[in-house]
Every structure is written in structure tokens, then in C-alpha cells.
Amino acid sequence: MSPSGEIGSQPYWVEKLHQVGWLIPPFVSTGWITSVATIIDREGPQFGQAELEQLLALMFTPENLAAMVTNRYPQKPMIKDFQEIIAEGVQAHFLKLDHIAASGLVPVVEGATRRLAKEQGIVIEDFKATLSALIEHCKGHVSTRRIGKVAEIVSMLESFELFVSKVLFVNTKRYPLTDGTNRHGMAHGIFADKDFGSPLNFYKIITAINFLTFISSLYYGGSGFAPDESAESKELARYYRALNETVSARRP
User: How far apart are CA 52 and CA 237, in angstroms?
Assistant: First the structure.
């Protein structure tokens, strides 16, 4: 429970998405999130990592990612410090270099978390303790200022902490899933080629980066909706599609 006493209003979302190693995504409609959680619940053990990847591919389209790269990451404090790294990771994804996309984006999660925490006066050496302190501080911030749907945001923050601490940054020996979206496994060479490198790794990590972008918006202002397309983002989306099509057609 947050220091303010606020209780999350969406425990079902938290539970069902964590069940498959994901988190409540920001900048997505509540109807879509409910639909995904319901599918996971209905399919039970039949819904695994391959099924999640298929669903997330529908969410992370070239248009969606291009709009974030051009119209959201560069505008958000702490996130804009990593905008080039994020853009390169997205490009690597469309080049089907998902080992590189995943391992290249993982440091952004830790770096942006620490920078956001430091701006709120939270300086702790241990990363998980930093994460937990930032989440509690953000819950209090949202509750005190009555930002948006407070109880829903509290659930989102809890889902993010659960994903980062129990999935992305969990001890590799305790990683519970088959897809290999685990920072330590990637960064320390525990995982080899076969252990990760799917589009799903990218989708999960970019969701975490989007969530940190959402936290930046909670502190510094900004929309909780996905960014609109612009002439620049449409051009970038066409480039992403061309990369994907070229690689698919010509890769030996």
C-alpha cells in the first residue's frame, strides 16, 4: 500500500499480466488491456510467451514506435537523455537484430530509473531498493496531487515494480519464463544465442521504457495518451517498414 493509503483498483490486470511476465502498459486504452488480461485468464496454461509475442506485435507497430521515438521520448526529462539509445534499439528491432535491441535497451531501464529517483532526492546504491523507493514516492505524488485516475495509476506502478524486480532484474536462476527477458542473463553472458533474442524481449523492455516515460510525465507533466502521428513520425514509420521488408526479403 502506498504511504497515502491509496489502493490500486486493477489487481486483476496486475495479476494476469505478471502471470506471463509483462506489466500494465501506459499509453494504451483500458479496453485493450482488459481484453489481453481476459485472454490470458481464459486460455490459462495454453497462453504462453509465443502467444504474448503475437499480441504485442499488434501493439508495437512501426507507427506506434515511430511516434514515441519522434514525439515522446525526446520531450521527457530523464528519458530524453537516452533518446538516441532508444531510437537505435527500435531500429535494431526492425532490422530483426533482437539480441542487440534487447541487450542494448536494458541499461536504459536502470539508468532512467536512477535518474528519475535522484531528481526526487532518492539516492540508494542498490537498484531494487531505488526502484521500490521511486515507486512509493510516485504513488504519494500522484495521490497528493490527485493526478488522473489515482487508484488505476497505483495499480500500474505496482505492476511496473513487479515486472522489473521479479522478471527483468530477478536473479537469473529464479527467472520463471522461457523467453529470457532478464537483465543479468543478458549482461553477464549467462544467456547465449538460443536463450533470448526474440521480438518479445524487445516488446517487454520497450514497455518498461514507456512506463518510465509515463512516470516522467507524472512528475513533469504531459499526456497519458499515446502521441499523435506527425509528418516526421510517418516518415520514420515508412522507414521502419522498409527496413523490415528488406531484411525479410533479402536476409540470407
Answer: 23
